[in-house]
Structure formats: structure tokens, C-alpha cells
Design a protein that fits this description.
The chain has 477 residues and is an alpha/beta fold. Among the domains are: 245 residues, Aspartate Aminotransferase, domain 2 (3-Layer(aba) Sandwich), CATH 3.40.640; 58 residues, no CATH class. The protein has 16 helices and 13 strands. It has a seven-stranded mixed beta sheet, sandwiched between helices. Strands 10-11-13-12 form a four-stranded antiparallel beta sheet. The longest helix has 38 residues. The chain is globular and about 65 Å long. 44% of the residues are buried. The mean pLDDT is 94.
Length: 477
């Protein structure tokens, strides 16, 4: 659009915004198993009211807006308490799991700079199931990521592999509780011993599980040790806006030794303007997200979170058990909570994703990598739980259809015409594949063919193409 010249009508503006949402996934019906975390209309209204109350307050300057600082202290104290932090532990509120992970890696690097001058080329050891945000952090902060193979059946990190990958340049190892892709919890206790023996930091990524696993564990789920009381664990990332059901833009980074946080903070007064002191990546930041977290924590409390986890856990177990009975499907690993993924044995899993979407479900497709085959991922929340039986029934119908047809088989090898394209620059590959991908922003309803082609490519080629695609997607009209 052109920059508006005249004032607009507020009701028409809101109407236009509502109309633009028409093609978005309809999360309110509880049939979207990714991206959205809904604790119900009353909780959602509270979040909107609390967020709006602090919409214009700026967390940049706690001396001007001390209420934002007090809210953050409360929220971080609650997170530390939930994860059994030792005395002296501290943390910071962030905009999301990626920022939390960025800060953790930056802190580890700067701590090594201050205390370990022998480390000149810092490395970080992480299982191949670790979240891409760690690789992003390594790219941003010039840390070398060193991947370690996981168990090909359970998809859990192997402590011995992690130990073997540690060198005299290692500053930190990483574990997940749980890993996003498969929902499995790494053997954090054993990995903590590896970290202690090697004298390196240990980050546990609880972004997706930090506000769920503690409650599932209290309800009797088989959740191994993972929190800040586990020997060797030095830091943890945890999102409030996932199963804490807060408004998006709400996460935290926690340190078992609060003194580590000093390496996270940036200060600069060497210019002609105001002094900049940033505990996190962002400078200006709305007080809305922190107010939303404070409100939802006090609204739900442990009692409310246990109720939500109870319903969610029951639905998760029901769906996982049902998948075991559906010929042609298999769950990957042994996920104990509300995240899991399943693959197909003898038909195209991406075709199943398309078929379920036509029935109104959104199951997240994931490409194959390492020992993990292409699969569909589910993140279950309280809003999904009432729809478990309907999901299972539709899964059975669509799997039976696909297994009875030879039309949709998984692509095991990249066709020659696409193989030849991979030698081209990314832009030219996109042009050559335009018949498959379609125009940016106008993808076909059936993603099976695209997903199969991308799945059959080496991950590095996939990444090149995805960068080009995203760049085009956001190009001006």
C-alpha cells in the first residue's frame, strides 16, 4: 500500500483487519495442534485486559516504569520456584524462547571470555534434536555448534556421545526437556554429570515444556529429572506463552548461579545520548507481555495449571495409544507429555497432513533428518483435549484411504529434474521450481508434492531454498 494520506475510520480499519484473518488457521475451534495456546475465553479476556493496561508502559527504563520491574521480579521468582532453583538463582524476562536461548549462548561465550582466556574458538555441544535457535545463536555470536548423534529409536541424547564431543574449547552443552520434534526428554541427570566432569555449562531447553512438565509430573507422568535442582544444570530457557497460556512475547532465561547474569547485560554510555542499559536483547519493550504473564499466573495458579495439564495429558495419552493401533502409523520415540510425532510406514505422511487439513485439522509437517523420518507433529493443549476422539476417528478414515491407494507414496529419492536444479543459485532454483511452489503467498491447498520434494533434498539445499522463498514472500507487491 501507499503511505496513508488522510485519517481513517476506526471501525472500518478493525473490520478490514478481521477480514484479513479469514485465511488464517481457525485455532478457536481447538483443531490446530501448533502455534496457539488457549486456556479458554475467561483467561483470554484477562490476558487482553492486562496486556492493554500495560500496552504503552516501556520496560526499557525501570526507573520510569518501576511497576514493570516489580512484575518481572514476581514472574521470575515464580519461575525459579516452579523449577526448584537453588538459593542465589536469577533470571530475566524475554520476548520468546529464541531470545532466551540467544542470551544463554551470549552469556556462556562472555563468561568464557572473562574467565577462560585459553578458549579462543568457543564451541557448544548439542544433540542433533536441539532446537534451531541454538544454531541461530551460534551464528550470531560466533560460537561453533558441534552436533552429537542421538539414539535412533528413542531420539534422546546419548550422554557418552556428548562427552566425546567436548573439547578444550567447549563452553556449554545443551539438552532438551522436551525436544520439540518428538516430545522426548533428554537424560538430563546423566548429561549434568557429563557437564560437571568436563567443567562446562549446561543449558536445559525447557521452552516448550517448562510450564507443562512440572504439572504433568505431579499428576504421575513418568518425567525424569530436568529442572534447576539437577546437578550440573546451570541455565534454563522457559516460555510462558506456550503452556503457561500467557500472551505471546513471554519467555525467560534462568541461571542457577545468579552471578552469571552479569555476562548477559549490555551497557553503553560512550555516545552523546542517554545511557543504554539492556539486561536482554530488546531495548524498548511494551509492558503488556509481562503484565499478561503476571495476570495469568495469579489467575490459574498451581490448581488451574494442574487441571489444564490433567485434561491435556489424558487426551495426549489417548491419541498416542490410538496411533499404536492404526496400521501404517508409528509414534517416534517415547514422549511422556503433550508433544509427539508419528510417521507412516507404507504411505505418504504429507498426503495424510493434507487430508486432515481438508477435514479442518492442522497437524504440523516435519521433514526427515538423521534418524528421524518425515512425520506429523502434534502439540496438544487444553483447547485440543475435547476433540481427541474426533481426531482419532478422522485419522483412522484417512489412513485407511491412503493405504488402500497406490497414488500417494512417499518420495524416497529426488527426481532427476530437481537433482539438477540444486547446482543452481537459490534464486534460479526458485524460478525453476515455480511450477511446484507457486507464487509466494499463493501456495496450493495440497502441500504433499512440495513437502516431498523438500524432504528428499539435503538439509543444506532445503535451507538455501527456504531463505530465498521467505525473502520473496516478504517482498513488496
Amino acid at each position: 500500500m501507499k503511505f496513508p494520506k488522510a485519517r481513517g475510520d476506526s471501525s472500518k480499519i478493525l473490520s478490514d483487519l478481521e477480514a484479513r484473518k479469514s485465511d488464517d488457521v481457525n485455532w478457536a475451534e481447538g483443531r490446530v495442534f501448533a502455534y496457539v495456546y488457549d486456556a479458554g475465553p475467561e483467561a483470554m479476556k484477562l490476558l487482553k485486559d492486562a496486556y492493554s493496561m500495560y500496552l504503552t508502559e516501556n520496560g526499557l527504563d525501570p526507573t520510569s516504569f518501576p511497576s514493570c520491574l516489580e512484575l518481572e521480579k514476581d514472574v521470575i521468582a515464580a519461575a525459579l520456584d516452579l523449577h526448584n532453583a537453588p538459593k542465589g538463582a536469577k533470571g530475566s524476562f524475554t520476548s520468546g524462547g529464541t531470545e532466551s536461548i540467544l542470551l544463554s549462548v551470549k552469556t556462556a561465550r562472555d563468561k568464557a571470555r572473562a574467565e577462560r582466556p585459553d578458549i579462543t574458538a568457543p564451541e557448544m555441544v548439542l544433540p542433533e534434536t536441539a532446537h534451531p535457535a541454538f544454531f541461530k545463536a551460534c551464528a550470531y555470536f560466533d560460537v561453533k555448534p558441534v552436533s552429537a548423534a542421538v539414539d535412533p529409536q528413542t531420539f534422546e541424547a546419548i550422554p557418552e556421545n556428548m562427552a566425546d564431543a567436548i573439547t578444550d574449547q567447549t563452553i556449554m552443552i545443551v539438552g532438551s526437556a522436551p525436544s520439540y520434534a518428538h516430545g522426548v526428554v533428554d537424560p538430563i541427570a546423566q548429561m549434568g554429570l557429563v557437564a560437571k566432569k568436563a567443567g562446562v555449562l549446561f543449558h536445559v531447553d525447557c521452552c516448550v515444556g517448562g510450564m507443562y512438565l512440572p504439572f504433568a509430573r505431579k499428576l504421575g507422568a513418568d518425567i525424569p529429572e530436568f529442572d534447576l535442582s539437577t546437578p550440573g544444570v546451570t541455565q534454563m530457557s522457559m516460555d510462558f506463552h506456550k503452556w503457561g497460556y500467557a500472551a505471546k512475547g513471554a519467555s525467560c532465561i534462568l541461571y542457577s548461579d545468579g552471578e552469571m547474569r552479569r555476562h548477559q547485560i549490555f551497557a553503553w554510555s560512550g555516545w552523546t545520548g542517554y545511557t543504554v542499559i539492556n539486561p536482554t536483547v530488546l531495548s524498548t519493550k511494551s509492558g503488556g507481555p509481562i503484565a499478561g504473564v503476571w495476570a495469568i499466573l495469579n489467575y490459574l495458579g498451581e490448581e488451574g495449571y494442574l487441571e489444564l495439564a490433567r485434561a491435556t495429558q489424558a487426551a495426549s495419552e489417548k491419541i498416542r495409544d490410538a496411533v499404536k493401533t492404526i496400521d501404517g502409523l508409528r509414534t517416534l520415540g517415547n514422549p511422556p507429555g503433550n508433544l509427539f510425532a508419528f510417521a507412516a510406514d507404507d504411505f505418504d505422511i504429507f498426503a495424510l497432513g493434507d487430508a486432515m487439513r481438508k477435514r479442518g485439522w492442522f497437524l504440523q509437517p516435519q521433514f526427515g533428518f538423521g534418524p528421524s523420518p518425515a512425520n506429523l507433529h502434534l502439540s496438544l493443549g487444553a483447547s485440543n483435549a475435547p476433540h481427541a476422539d474426533e481426531l482419532i476417528a478422522d485419522l483412522k478414515v484417512e489412513v485407511a484411504k491412503l493405504r488402500g491407494s497406490n497414488e500417494h507414496q512417499t518420495m524416497t529419492k529426488l527426481p532427476p529434474e530437481f537433482e539438477a536444479m540444486l547446482a543452481l543459485p537459490a534464486g534460479e532454483i526458485m524460478d525453476a521450481m515455480s511450477g511446484v511452489f507457486g507464487a509466494p503467498g499463493d501456495l496450493p491447498d495440497d502441500m504433499r508434492e512440495i513437502n516431498n520434494v523438500m524432504n528428499a533434498m539435503p538439509s543444506g539445499d532445503r535451507d538455501r531454498i527456504l531463505v530465498e522463498f521467505m525473502n520473496r514472500l516478504y517482498a513488496k507487491a
